[in-house]
Amino acid sequence: MSVLPGKPLPGEQRAGKKLEFRDPVRGAALTEALAARARSLGRAPVSVMHVCGSHEQAIARFGLRAAFPDELDVIMGPGCPVCVTDVPEVDEAVALARQGVRIATYGDMLRVPGTAGSLADERARGARVDVVYGVAQAAELARSGEQIVFFASGFETTAVATAAVLLADPPPSFSVLSAHKYIPPVMEIVAEMPGSKIEGFLAAGHAATITGSAVFERFVARHRVPVVVAGFEPLDILAGLVRLVELIAAGEPKVDNAFPRCVTREGNLAAQARLWKVFELQGGRWRGIAHVPNGNLRLRDEFAAWDARKRFEIDVAALWDNAPATRVAQCQCGDIMAGIASPHDCALFGRECTPDAPVGACMVSSEGTCKIWHQYGGHPDLRQVRRRT
Amino acid sequence: MADAKVRTMCLGVPGRVISIDGDIALVDFWGVIKPVRLDVVDTPVVPGDYVLNHVGFAIRRIPPEDIAETLALYDELLRRAGADDLMAADVRGELDAAGKPS
Amino acid sequence: MNDRRYVEERITLKYGAGGSAMRALIEQIFAPGFGEVAGGVGLSAMDDGAALPIGPDRWLVITTDAHVVQPAVFPGGDIGRLAVCGTVNDLAMMGATEPLALTCAAILEDGFPRSELEQIWASIRAACEEAGTTIVTGDTKVMRRGELDRIALTTTGVALTSRVVTDRGLAPGDRILVTGTMGDHGLAILATRGELALETRLVSDVAPINGLIRRALAAGGDGVVAMKDPTRGGLASALHEMAGKSGVGIILDERAVPVRDEVRAAGELLGIDPLLVANEGKAVIGVRAAAAGRVLDALRSHPLGRQAAVVGECVAERPGSVIADTGFGRRLLGEAEGELLPRIC
User: Fold this and answer.
1) Is the distance from CB of A208 to CB of A155 less than 8 angstroms?
2) Residues in chain C within 8 Å Cβ distance of A385
3) Could you report the predicted ipTM of this complex, rounded to two decimals?
4) Which chains touch A (3 or more CB pairs under 8 A)?
5) Which residues 314-343 of C have a C-beta within 8 angstroms of B?
6) Distance (Å, whole) CA C222 – CA C213
7) Using one digit for the tens of pLDDT, what is the confidence trace for B47-79?
8) Is the dihedral angle over the CA atoms C280, C245, C248, A363 positive or is it negative?
9) Residue A199, SS3?
């Protein structure tokens, strides 16, 4: 098999460096390499897991699942921070909104259902809820002196931004309701699940840009499975998977960095310093995954002045009176996020639970497995489709 | 404003720094210019550098030579995937010729 | 189209977004009781306009549009230009490229600046001249401050045609063409809304394309089998409707779809797909394979069609589905769920 040259196709040159990671010629070669590697393992299928909603988004957007070999099962794990935000956390934000406090949050959080509805439902009833594109924008809203609570979701990479804003003299009327989460602990839980067949993990490149690849070394030593850190361009993902299957084939449990342009072993120390100055780890529930030790990022006592949980008396009990019956019992978000079930295993998927009328968080977030599957039609076997030219 | 369905979570897009004013850089993403904060990037950034952006903060300066390095890494993976079979066949051929078990 | 959804108790923003919710609204609330137009195109067809037979090989084409775009003035145009072009282009999408006349009703909020109104009307005059048409009647209302967000315009257009082109005439083997770059209008509007702190040179593509379409029809004749303009919901919505109504599947070559670098970049930064946002100076044209080449040449010969491209083809499999070939793999092309961008047209 020859190595194909990596020149961008004509017409793509002017768009610059970024498109080199979307070179379809290299993409086709990497796809073939992946198939060859997976087949040579001689046992089917090999299961690997990624833990980042953005990886699933990229896989779905570029239609990579139609190109993955049958021998490889790429499962999406609990990598959607919005999806794993638990009902009590959503209830806190909804309760505050109902109490007349103005809430700012990222778009995806708006429609995550709590006990008595979502922030979007509350807004339709007259509460003040703003969608922001960045935490800094939320802080700006507070410059007028009005109380603004930023309902903060996202993993550690996003938490760094929240920390940076809190360290840069935000307006006194600004505060944070932290629902930030930390990914490494949940990989432990997934790896320890009985019956887990995951033989390797693809780790999120952007989180590792901050935390460094070293953060996975203890995990690898304990669970003896390889972890490859990969970026988000299609070539990054394909190359990351080729490398992962290589390591599985060689029986080499190690941490491998397939995103060297952004990730180093120790990571971004300045960002880490800010993160841990403001936040500390706390155990807590992730939606559907029960207790994750050290899985939540909460504001340290030194930052109590900015902590919405300390500034306000949040009355969640008021939400629980007359809460309508929900179909939560049948919702399989938890199993889906742990990679045990797929959306098609859920009786509600595509029927009572749609992006328009979501029951579970996986259907709300743009990085939720169910939402992505619904939008892109699940795992249709699109290999059958051929262009007639 | 009403909510645009915007994905803001893990969007790390690289752009080129045009100018810097204190802690804020003006970054060019293919002709779209956006202010990006430099609070948490760990190496000094100057105009002309590429940075990786996440929710309005630069989280990494990308040295241009690293891009070539990454592409070389992919080509190396391809070489290994393609060449393995050939190598194995060569080795087997030599061993057979020497009368040893492979 | 088999939309199983039902219209909810309250008509929320998504019902105006141009996607499946809006189609359900029309199907279930607006259209019932109005029957079909024998030998023509009526409300239930949900096409870009209606066509009433008035004689052998002669139809009266009529269309109406309401415009509420926010802000009223944006890079590349304003609500006036949008109002004229939207209606002229809808007529063209039905095959009627020579508008007889337009009407224009204006609803203004108390306190609306006269100078802005004059600017908008100058735009309307200029757009009419470009399109070769005129405004012949209208209506004026002024509402109390706070009861209307500044200005709303409604335009109706009429034209005659000897051949009606619907949005449901595709068959397996037909090619899909677009007349130019996708996503310009929607992303230009979003970028002007200051919250995003984006500095761009994004500009709306709002323009009357009846002259362009006239050239395509002259070149393609009966080979032009379907047309639709990709406004709300973008290219994705237009393709879904055309595929669903025609009973064919569409394979879209994503890399062949022309998208300006800046539009692509803005879309990446904001997580919005240029294929899902509105265009106001473009058309999607379904063409028999044999005619595709000459229709493409005809489009490219016109200043508004220089970047026209063949972007897909129709197949018999999976009728109603639109599959995108990304260059790396294949996926189903989704439609925007609900209100992607409010108040863009």
Assistant:
1) no
2) 251, 315, 317-318, 323, 330
3) 0.78
4) B, C
5) 336-343
6) 14
7) 988 898 888 899 999 877 777 777 787 788 878
8) positive
9) strand
Interfacial A residues in 299-358 facing C (CB < 8 Å): 355-356
Of the candidates B50, B60, B62, which has its C-beta nearest A268's C-beta? B60
Cis peptide before C71 (omega within 30 of 0): yes
Q: pLDDT class for A133, splitting at 50, 70, 90?
A: confident
How far is residue C118 from each of residues A308, B1, C61, C85, C113, measured CA to CA in Å? 50, 27, 30, 18, 9
Q: Rounded to an integer, what distance in angstroms lies between the CA atom of residue C125 and that of residue C84?
A: 9
Q: Would the pTM of this model clear 0.80, i.e. be above it?
A: yes
Tell me whether residue C255 is exposed, middle or buried, using C-beta atoms within 10 angstroms of its C-beta: 0 to 12, 13 to 18, 19 or more.
middle
Give the closest of A27, A62, A382 to C323, CB-based: A382
Cβ of B29 under 8 Å from any chain C Cβ? yes
Would you state the structure tokens that stand for residue C304, as one six-digit string?
């508004």
Low-confidence ranges of chain C (pLDDT < 50): 1-3
Alpha helix stretches (DSSP H) within chain A: 24-40, 53-61, 87-98, 119-124, 135-141, 156-167, 184-192, 205-211, 217-223, 234-250, 269-278, 308-311, 317-320, 333-337, 369-376
CA-based angle A372:A206:C337, to the nearest 5? 25
- Residue type (1 letter), A291: H
Q: Which residue has the higher pLDDT, A46 or A350?
A: A46
Question: A154: which DSSP letter?
Answer: -
**Which residues in chain A have Cβ-Cβ distances shorter than 8 Å to C255?**
24
Distance CA(A156)–CA(A210), nearest Å, equals 8
| Residue C307: partners with Cβ closer than 8 Å, 6 or more residues away | C180, C181, C258
User: CB atoms < 10 A from the CB of A300, how many?
Assistant: 12
- Note the pLDDT tens digit of each residue in C103-139: 999 999 999 999 999 999 999 999 999 999 999 999 9
**Cβ atoms of residues A345 and A353 within 8 Å:** no
Phi, psi of C104 (to 5 degrees): -150, 115
Query: Considering only alpha carbons, which residue of chain B is nearest residue C186?
Result: B4
Identify all chain C residues contacting A388, using CB atoms and an 8 Å cutoff.
173, 313, 315
Q: How big, in percent rounded to 5, are the helix, strand and coil portions of chain A?
A: 45, 15, 40
- Say if residue A116's pLDDT is above 70: yes
Backbone CA torsion sign across B68, B73, B74, B76 = positive
Q: Does C194 touch chain B (CB under 8 A)?
A: no
Q: Which of C67, C30, C92, C86 is nearest to C154 (CA)?
A: C67
Q: What is the pLDDT of residue A92?
A: 95
Q: What is chain C's length?
A: 345
- Among B residues 39-68, those touching chain A with beta carbons less than 8 Å apart: 39-42, 50, 52, 54-57, 59-60, 62-64, 66-67
Query: What value does the CA radius of gyration of chain A take, rounded to a whole number of Å?
Result: 22
